[in-house]
Design a protein that fits this description.
The complex is a heterodimer. Chain A is of the alpha/beta class. Chain A has helices at about 45-55, 90-95, 105, 120-130, 150-160, 175-180, and strands at about 10-15, 20-30, 35-40, 55-65, 70-75, 135-140, 165-170, 185. In chain A, helix 2 (about 90-95) runs parallel beside helix 4 (about 120-130). Chain B has helices spanning about 10-35, 40-55, 60-80, 85-105, 105-120, 125-155, 160, 170-190, 190-210, 210-235, 240-250; strands at about 210, 260-264. Chain B has a two-stranded parallel ribbon with strand order 1-2. The longest helix of chain B has 30 residues, at about 125-155. Chain B is globular, with a radius of gyration of 18 Å. Chain B starts with 8 loop residues before the first helix and ends with a strand. The mean pLDDT of chain B is about 90. The interface of A and B includes residues 53, 78, 111 and 113 of A.
Chain lengths: ~190, ~260
């Protein structure tokens, strides 16, 4: 990558699984940025994130990552194994997040096991874990799904306080969230 | 038989071998439950038993055949990443059919099948005790590292691929431990008792514990308690050890009805 500060560069990228489902897309992501991805259902927003995690295939174009880039991915529906005796604190530790720095809302989940949390609480915990971990690039796929307004504000506050060396690529269908959180928004179309 | 036999030097080695397996098998069972692969252990055990009986027919050591059968089943499970309970059920049915059909081909094969299916803990050898000790050491030494990576892979499934970190060290390491434990388990406890030790203690512990470490400790405590109780009951009532152990483990299952979790 020519510019050493750049975290990610996509040039005319087409990505998919058996065949391309998104693209061509061009995008650059710099440290300190929170970039939103929006577009109609099925346009390939999630697939684009999956390309960055290695789950989807690159069919055409060029994908460049900064050397040693670390990535955290909050899926649209985070994995939630049934009856796993893992507490909220343990989930945060697994992600490398500082448990002491968690706000009261998340501290309340520290001793609760996964199945003792509501869908929204687990969504918030997982998104928070990805955000507060050490990864330089955080991929958030509709992180505000199932969240109440207070929880959304909590995430937005954290995005606003993002460390300068990190960046977030966030998929959302909520214009207010994108407007409040993102330094710019990329709209995908077919 | 009398209970005093439990302290007889002749039974010390079998008891200690059983207790070592009662530590290792529930811990590995917790990992399999985390990965929703607990049923696969019965499939691997049946395939290992079929391999053991085939080994006898080929005039090879039982353990070599069992290891080969378990390795083939373990490799199939690891390579079929999307394997589900249906695949594991197929594996155990095929393994069971293999054992039964191969056992028809001679007295030695039949004896080997009976020993592998029902267990023969009382005839544990020093080599089996040594292997069980080594297994426990390996499981405990790798436990922290394996736990962290298996949990990360479960809750953050893209972590290793997205960060271009290899997942094969923990995948292969865990499979190797499971295969080794199952081969050792069926050679001493028998197929169903091995499966019982892998399945039941973590199933109860995952319901009752709060936190990963408490769940592991409770799994081991249940496994060890069941092994001790099974051993004493089998000796005292002159019963076969394998089915007695499974009965004790099954009798613990209602503990799941306990409503409160305990732990950190």
């Amino acid at each position: 990558m020519n510019d050493t500060a750049l975290l990610l560069r996509l040039r005319e990228v087409q990505a998919g699984y058996d065949r391309p489902v998104v693209g061509p897309v061009s995008l650059e992501l710099w440290p300190g940025e929170v970039v939103g991805l929006t577009g109609l259902n099925g346009v390939g927003k999630t697939t684009l994130l999956k390309l960055l995690t290695g789950e989807a295939r690159l069919f055409a174009g060029e994908l460049q990552r900064a050397a040693g880039l670390t990535v955290a991915h909050h899926r649209q529906q985070p994995e939630r194994p049934p009856e796993l005796p893992l507490t909220g604190r343990e989930v945060l530790r697994l992600a490398g997040a500082d448990t002491a720095a968690a706000p009261a809302r998340l501290q309340a989940l520290h001793r609760r096991c996964l199945e003792e949390m509501s869908g929204g609480e687990y969504q918030l915990l997982h998104a928070w874990a990805c955000l507060m971990g050490p990864a330089r690039l955080v991929l958030l796929d509709e992180p505000t799904n199932n969240l109440d307004q207070d929880a959304i504000e909590l995430l937005l506050g954290e995005l606003d306080a993002l460390a300068p060396g990190r960046a977030v690529l966030m998929v959302s269908h909520e214009p207010e969230v994108l407007q409040a959180a993102c330094s710019r928004v990329v709209s995908l179309c077919r | 038989m009398s209970l005093s036999l439990a302290w007889d030097p002749m039974f010390r080695l079998p008891l200690l071998t059983g207790l070592l397996l009662a530590v290792a098998l529930p811990l590995l069972g917790a990992g399999l439950r985390l990965r929703e692969q607990w049923l696969s252990s019965l499939g691997v055990a049946q395939m290992a038993a079929a391999g053991g009986v085939a080994g006898v027919l080929l005039h090879a050591p039982v353990i070599a055949g069992a290891l080969l059968g378990a390795l083939l089943a373990g490799a199939a499970r690891m390579l079929a990443g999307a394997a589900r309970n249906e695949h594991y059920a197929l594996m155990l049915l095929a393994g069971w059919a293999g054992v039964m059909l191969l056992a028809m081909h001679g007295h030695e094969a039949q004896m080997a099948a009976v020993h592998l299916l029902n267990g023969q803990l009382y005839f544990s050898s020093p080599a089996q005790f040594g292997a069980a000790s080594l297994l426990v050491v390996l499981v405990l030494l790798s436990g922290r590292w394996l736990s962290r990576r298996l949990l990360q892979a479960r809750l953050f499934p893209d972590h290793f691929r997205a960060n271009r970190q290899p997942a094969w060290p923990h995948e292969l390491g865990f499979e190797a431990l499971v295969v080794g434990a199952i081969v050792l388990g069926i050679g001493t406890l028998g197929v169903m008792a091995t499966f019982g030790m892998i399945f039941l203690p973590p199933w109860i512990a995952f319901r009752l514990a709060r936190g990963w470490l408490p769940a592991l400790l409770l799994s081991v405590a249940l496994g060890v308690a069941a092994c001790l109780a099974g051993f004493l009951l089998a000796l005292g009532l002159d019963l076969p050890f394998g089915p007695t152990l499974v009965a004790v483990l099954a009798a613990l299952a209602p503990l799941r009805l306990w409503r409160r979790r305990a732990g950190i």
